[in-house]
Amino acid sequence: MEQILSSVEDNLLIVYSTISIIVISAIAVNQTARSLLLFCWNCFVVPFFHKKKNGIEQQSNLELFYKNQAHIYDKTREYLLKGREECLKLAVNHLESQKDLVWVDIGGGTGSNIEYMNSVLPISNFKKVYLVDLSPSLCDIAINRFKNNGWSNVEVLIADASSFKIPYEKVDLITFSYSLSMIPTYYNTIDNAVNLLSQSGIIASVDFGIQSNDTSIGRINTLGGLINRNSSWINRNFWRIWFEADKVFLDSARRNYLEYKFGTVKSINTYNKKLGKIPYYIWVGCHKSKNENLIHRINSHVTESPYLSPVKTSSASIISVDDQPYMSKGHEALIDNLSKNLPYPSIYYQKEIWRVYFDDLNPQYNQFKNQYIYAFTWEDPREDHKILKFNENDTVLAITSAGDNILHYACLPNPPKKIHAVDLNPCQGHLLELKLSAFRNLPKDQIWSLFGEGKIDNFKELLLTKLSKSISSNNLQYWFERGNKTFDPKGQGLYDTGSTRWALRLAKYIFTLCGLNKHIRQLCECTTMKEQVEIWNNKIKPHLFNPIVATLLIGNPIFLWKALGVPPNQAKMMGPSVMKYVVDTLDPVINRSLISSDNYFYYLTLMGKYSKQNCPDYLTAKGYNNITRVDPKTGESPLDHIRLHTDTLNDVFYRLKESSLTIAIIMDHMDWFDPNGKDAVNEILAVKKALCKNGRVMLRSAAQYPWYIKIFEQNGFRCEPAAIRESGESIDRINMYASTWVCTKIEDKRRMSSLRI
Ligand SMILES: C[S@@+](CC[C@H](N)C(=O)[O-])C[C@H]1O[C@@H](n2cnc3c(N)ncnc32)[C@H](O)[C@@H]1O
Ligand SMILES: *[C@@H]1O[C@H](CO)[C@@H](O)[C@H](O)[C@H]1NC(C)=O
Ligand SMILES: *[C@@H]1O[C@H](CO)[C@@H](O)[C@H](O)[C@H]1NC(C)=O
Ligand SMILES: *[C@@H]1O[C@H](CO)[C@@H](O)[C@H](O)[C@H]1NC(C)=O
Ligand SMILES: *[C@@H]1O[C@H](CO)[C@@H](O)[C@H](O)[C@H]1NC(C)=O
Ligand SMILES: *[C@@H]1O[C@H](CO)[C@@H](O)[C@H](O)[C@H]1NC(C)=O
Ligand SMILES: *[C@@H]1O[C@H](CO)[C@@H](O)[C@H](O)[C@H]1NC(C)=O
Ligand SMILES: *[C@@H]1O[C@H](CO)[C@@H](O)[C@H](O)[C@H]1NC(C)=O
Question: Which domain of life does this protein belong to (predicted)?
Fold first, then answer.
């Protein structure tokens, strides 16, 4: 009830106070205010009095509405009709070719959309542009506008959206901006669009529209994500009734029909907060059966996993659905939906196949609250390579985290032939997916700004015009909502996000509290080891490890979990004194290598960003070249061989083809399990199934001899420590873990199956 009331207040108060302010200021006879007053009069007052006069003819209705306000239309719609430029940028970024295009803007009104377009993609790139609109007075303005701009390839058709005729059989782009909600016969308008859009064409709509949870039942995975899609009961009804007075219909059916007749490539659910909280959406779609690439994706079970296809397969390798032994969740969803004549799940219409199908309503994701934990990866990939010696015959599975290690493997001299990145938290996947798209679409210096500095000017522009074509719809919704803030140059940047920001903030807080800031800066600038050890031993350590700091923070389990992501089960494995554990971690790190040039982990924690001399390999010029280098034989780069899974490890192990992995890197994941539970043995059996003979599992632990090593050994693995941390020594540049282990699968298949019987 409270929520309803506050929502009523939200909307009513804002709208009515806006109107009163406009009316009052109009009295001050200001030019703009007079336009706004006229707008309000025509939108909110006239419709109520003219109700009886309206006939059944839509055109006369429209004229009644628009005639007196056509000249002020553009000025007054700037705040009301948000997202129009964003929608065009998104649509253009998804076009396959940007030359010789034919575009139809349906319900184009005064043609302002076409003028916006000129700044996104010059009108000279179009072979022909049609503006279709039923209102002669708005069309007049459009005709003048195009004449003034000297665009001879733009034509205005005063016609109904459901029955206009153009001399082209197929077009490349169709857009609706705030018009679908006004077109009474939207179903045949959309049906006509299906026939008019070319196979590789793009259709886009930006409009007001209300949705509740219930309107998505049964179509969930075809919609490109449900985040923000439902608005509250009061919000839905208030705006629907409000807009009806102006013959604008916010009912869900319009968007639903669009999403049924086309495949959803991208969809953003958001609110216009300038005038209350009006729900609107931006949607980009394509032909339901876009291209043959789709068929190949459906059949991609020919590789390790049903959905994990190579970038290019010949049609010869496609096998029929009937004799396939493995089924992915994505494949199941697709077959299910297809049999009901629904479009394919949205993930299949994406340009890149990095992101493996996932169901974004999986309740297992709720625990993450739509946030990532790790903004950077806290494990040293240089050691991984020293221990495992990756080569081109490896298929590696590793935990995604922030994706830093995944990208490190991809820029090795001989990168693995395939890398599966697995994380149950969808937002960890979102972070890596954004990085992959950056490598695909941005130059080195912008990648550095984003992920080295963590800041960039106008992220949103970059997202819409460069990155969006390579990411999934869920990913776009995620970064559309928060990217500008995350990467804001005036803010704290990327590394002040995620739960790991608490560790960084806390470090800063303690250093300030202990008056250590100056010395920390010196530590990060040292050029000799001698200097570094001296500053640490004499200036920093005595203040840092005093009993108060230790008891309050480092020894506090709540802090460990919240800030460092160390869960209680793992804290237990650290031994009796957490303080000693921390000293054992840091002391030898200081002694190991220069923080200023060879330890980007601690450098980032202390400085909040990387430096060019001290950063993950993938952010260096060489790393960039390696990760984007194209093999002339296959036409593929290491980027093409990365897959992002948003599932539990076990789920992925079971869905991968048996014996397809050579290496699984599960980090400290098993420390989280309860030693008395079944989780460890279940995971060990799952990974064993996916590993080939002599395949290896690499893991790290807070214990020197973790309890689950024995369970590996009981189940057909040979386990050897790759490194055990003794007091005073470091085993890698982070040195957070007490041990690193490699467990090799030694049992062959026959023995396994006989064991099972
Ligand atoms: C809110 S305006 C949006 C105009 C323009 N697209 C923009 O973004 O500024 C909606 C437009 O749809 C047009 N419209 C409504 N019903 C139509 C129909 N049946 N056929 C063609 N246009 C129609 C109206 O004339 C009006 O110009
Ligand atoms: C929307 O659906 C989700 C999942 O089905 C459910 O958890 C949630 O409570 C629903 N929200 C509303 C407002 O009905
Ligand atoms: C929408 O549904 C989500 C759960 O899916 C719920 O948390 C949220 O409160 C709902 N939003 C509104 C405005 O009802
Ligand atoms: C589409 O597939 C998903 C996943 O299998 C399923 O939940 C949904 O109900 C399907 N839609 C219809 C209409 O069957
Ligand atoms: C990878 O496999 C091929 C074919 O089996 C073999 O010739 C090559 O030596 C292997 N490479 C490495 C580094 O083991
Ligand atoms: C890139 O690959 C080359 C060899 O192809 C190798 O020498 C170099 O170390 C790699 N660079 C990085 C940053 O990994
Ligand atoms: C995003 O942020 C930049 C400044 O970093 C600002 O200029 C721009 O207007 C913002 N864009 C949006 C859509 O919020
Ligand atoms: C670093 O540690 C090693 C091994 O414990 C020790 O021999 C050496 O003296 C230490 N170096 C410094 C500069 O403390």
Answer: Eukaryota
